[in-house]
Amino acid sequence: MSNDFPQNLRLLCGFYPSIAEVCRRIGVNRAQFNKYLNGNTQPSQYTLGKICHFFGVEPHEIMMPHEQFNQIVRVRSNPSSDSDPVRPYNRNIDLLIQESQGRADKYLGFYFEYHYSMTFPDHIIRSLLHIESDGDSYYFQRFERMRYPDRDEWYKSRYKGMLLFLADRIFLIGYEALTHNEIAQTILYPTYKSRVSYLSGLKLGASASDRREPVCTKVVLESLGRKISIKSALKLCGVFGPESEEINKNIRENIRATTTEGPQSFFATPL
Known about the structure:
Residues 18-62 form the HTH cro/C1-type domain. Pfam families: HTH_26. This is Helix-turn-helix transcriptional regulator. GO terms for molecular function: DNA binding. This protein is α+β, with helices and mostly antiparallel strands. The protein folds into 2 domains: 5-87, 434 Repressor (Amino-terminal Domain) (Orthogonal Bundle), CATH 1.10.260; 105-267, Quinohemoprotein amine dehydrogenase alpha subunit, domain 2 (Lipocalin, Beta Barrel). Helix content is 28%, strand content 29%. The chain has helices at residues 5-13, 19-26, 30-38, 45-55, 59-62, 66-75, 90-100, 230-235, 249-255, and strands at 109-116, 124-133, 138-146, 155-166, 169-176, 183-188, 198-206, 214-225, 238-240, 266-267. Strands 1-2-3-4-5-6-7-8 form an 8-stranded antiparallel barrel. The longest helix is centred in the first third of the chain and has 11 residues, at 45-55. It is elongated, with a radius of gyration of 23 Å. The N and C termini lie far apart (63 Å).
C-alpha cells in the first residue's frame, strides 16, 4: 500500500471539524483510525472502501503521490460540503479530547449533583448527572426537575456537554439543551480512591432570573453507580431548603460558602 496514504488521509480529515467526528460518521474505531493516520497499519479492503466512500474518492486515488492527490482534492468540491467549515480551534479541541482519552473511565455513571440555586440563592438544587463515553470522548447530561416552594409549576432543564480530564482536573462544559440560552462549566477535583463516592468543585453559570447574572457556586457530586432507575432518581430531584434533612449534612456543609450569612453563591456585579 502507498506510503502516501497516511498523508492523503490526514488531508481529507482536515476538511472536518475533528478526527473524532470523522470516525463516528464512518463507523470506525478511533484508536484503529489513528494507526492509519500514523502509518502504523493499513486498513482492510472493506474498511478502505468505507473510508473512500465517505470522503468521495476512489481507492486508487487515495494511494496517489501526495502532491498529485492534493491537487485533485483542491479542485473538487469540498469533501465536507455537508458539514460545518473547519474552524481554527477544532484541531486544538481534538487534541484536548485525545489527552483525556481513557483517563476518566472510573467516573462513568450517574450522580446526584448538589449546589445552591443560581436563581434562588438560599435554596439547594439536587439534579441528576450522567457521565458516559463513546470510546473516544466523554459526554454528560444533567437533568434538573424542580418546583420552587412558593409555586405550583414544575420546571425542567436539561444540559448536554463534554467532559475533559486535563492536568488532574475534571472539566464539564455544556449548554442548556431546551432553551439554548446558557453555557455552564463545572471544574471538579478528581478522587484518588479506587471507588468514586463524592466529587467537589465549582460551578459557573448564569442566573435564570431577568437579570441573568453570572454566578459561581460550590458543587458536590454524589455517585449513584452505573445502573440505576432513572425514573426513581428524578423523583428525588428538586429544590430544598438550606437545612433540609433530605440532603446529607456533610453535603450541605461542603456546598456552603465560607461566610455564614448572605448569599451562598458569588454573583458578578455589572459596571
